[in-house]
Amino acid sequence: MKFSGDYHTHSTYSDGHGTVKEMVLAAVKCGLAEIGLADHGPANIGTGIKNGKTLLKIQTELEELGLQNPGIKLLGGVEANIVSPDGFIDVEKDVLARLDYLLVGLHPYVIPQGGAGLSWIIGNQVAGIRRYKSRIRNQNTKALIGAVYRYKVLAVTHPGLKMEIDIPEVARACQIRNTAWEINTGHKHPGFSEILEAAASGVDFIVNSDAHFPETVGRLEYGAQILEKARVPIERILNAME
């Protein structure tokens, strides 16, 4: 299985180790037809972009690089953080309207929105304690579903990584909202059993590298292997090529 594009990559504008140009040239080198830059939203503590204007600056860089590299399609997006248990994210709607796509993800170390958000984020730090685990899992599930319904989301990133969720419940929401379930090859997540759970809902998948280095752009082999093992039809993998 081969893939047409890689839509979850990070540049030096957030916590990546390659400039926008270096990430684009890496995609050209490995023969991708498309690449998407999706730096972390500003709520990521110590690793996010400065603010929404940074995303527009990246868009401008991509437009200029597109003129120099006509053989590849360059897309500007964001991996936005969910910052409240109701599913609000850390990127303004007027900025989102100027981007090519939106990824959303749960991250344990973000600046939350309001008191409820603070309680939820702190709760995830103690989620390993048995008496809190079920409640926090339910809150994470509600937050992710809330974001999927509140915004037009291309995909949820590394669902369930470090912040446990109810996989069937979130996958059903994604299927209804035409939001893809990411196979994240950088983290090799989700695993086989989790993919089977999600696939049972009828959700579509997308395979991304979560590349933070130019050298890992387009390294999507794990996605091909795990989806073939799970016997997910190729027509349910958004960036798979026949």
TL;DR of this structure?
Helices cover 38% and strands 14% of the residues. The protein has helices at 20-29, 52-68, 93-96, 114-125, 130-150, 167-176, 192-199, 221-229, and strands at 2-3, 5-9, 34-37, 73-76, 79-81, 103-105, 155-156, 180-184, 205-208, 240-241. The radius of gyration is 17 Å and the shape is globular.
Explain what this protein looks like in three dimensions.
With 242 residues, the protein is an alpha/beta fold. It is 38% helix and 14% strand. The strands form three sheets. Strands 5-6-7-8-9 form a five-stranded parallel sheet, covered by helices on one side. It has a three-stranded parallel sheet with strand order 2-3-4, with helices on one face. α1 (20-29) links the parallel β2 (5-9) and β3 (34-37). α5 packs parallel to α6 (167-176) and α6 (167-176) packs across α7.
